[in-house]
Amino acid sequence: MTVQLGGTPGRLAGAAATAVAALLLTACDPAPPPGATTTARTAEADGAPVLDEHGIGRVRLGLTRAELELTGEVGADVTTAEFSCSVRELTTAKGWVGVQDGVAVEIRVEGGARTPEGLRVGDSRDRMREVYPDVRQYPHGFVRELPAGTVLKFFFENAGDTLTSIGLVQADRGCLT
To answer: What is the pLDDT of residue 26?
Structure first.
């Protein structure tokens, strides 16, 4: 049985190819259905997790203890006398997350991660100032104000010109005494 469609075969094939291409393009990045919730994820570049203005990986400031556990990205309790809150190690990078009053209030990275702009532990003060010209010095290092009441901190503890850790903390809280 042969079905005859109007138009020339070349135009029909072209129209069909255009329709298929449009479907494929829209299928690559579908919009979430109304009412759906999404989970923030931190992008990785060069295999290094990124500490952004919200956290690292699925570990985000403001998560409860139970939510932190569900991320699968926190390890053992590493709280010592120098901390004023409970501290858990990160499993995505060398560092820790501090929990105060039941929520994550500070994240400190000491290696194996970078900022979205590419600053890493081990970089120099000059590199930090190049990447973040708006940093200001405070008694324990440098800070950069971020949206939503958070602060990015840069530390050069006992290392002179070498960045030893990068922290993300709620502006009115922190875990180091």
So the answer is: 34
* Strand 55-56 versus strand 48-49 pairing type: unpaired
Identify the weakest region by mean pLDDT among 8-22, 29-43, 98-112, 123-137. Answer: 29-43
Residue 121 has pLDDT above 80, yes or no: yes
Q: Where are the alpha helices (DSSP H) in the chain?
A: 9-28, 65-71, 125-131
Q: Which of 75, 83, 43, 56 is nearest to 150 (CA)?
A: 56
Amino acid present at 137: Q
Give the closest residue to 51 by CA, choosing from 154, 141, 176.
154
Q: Angle 122-127-131 (CA atoms, 0-180°, nearest 5)?
A: 120
Q: What is the mean pLDDT of the chain?
A: 81
